Amino acid sequence: MNGEIFRDSDGKAISFAWPGGYPVVHVLHDGEILCADCVNDPSNPVHEGGENDGWRIEGSQIHYEGPDEICAHCGKVIPSAYGDPDASDDGEVE
Q1: How many CB atoms lie within 10 A of CB 43?
Q2: Residue ranges making up the domain that contains 5
Q3: What is the pLDDT of residues 58-67, one digit of tens each?
């Protein structure tokens, strides 16, 4: 992660990267994940820089593969683009 927050032309955090439509997660300083809806919600105290208060965004990244990520605020499931390589055909992690 390079510390950049992926945004659209209106300055809003994005849910999917283009081209490709890859899912994007937004990473807080403590390693928790937020979805774009929660980053963009004005009632949430997310911020860039400053205190390590649990709401500082460190950056965004494309969630290419691995298990689903869960938004730490709303619980939304954010699946990876290519699935979990460690999961069997029935979805269970081996």
Answers
A1: 5
A2: 1-94
A3: 999 999 999 9
DSSP label of 11: S
Q: Count Cβ atoms within 10 A of the Cβ of residue 29 and give its class: 0-12 exposed, 13-18 middle, 19 or more buried.
A: middle
pLDDT tens digits, one per residue of 40-55: 999 999 988 888 888 9
Tokens for 25? 């997660």
Number of domains into which the chain is organized: 1
Cα dihedral sign, 64-29-48-54: positive
Provide the pairing of β-strand 47-48 with 56-62: parallel
Find the radius of gyration of the CA atoms of the chain. Answer: 14
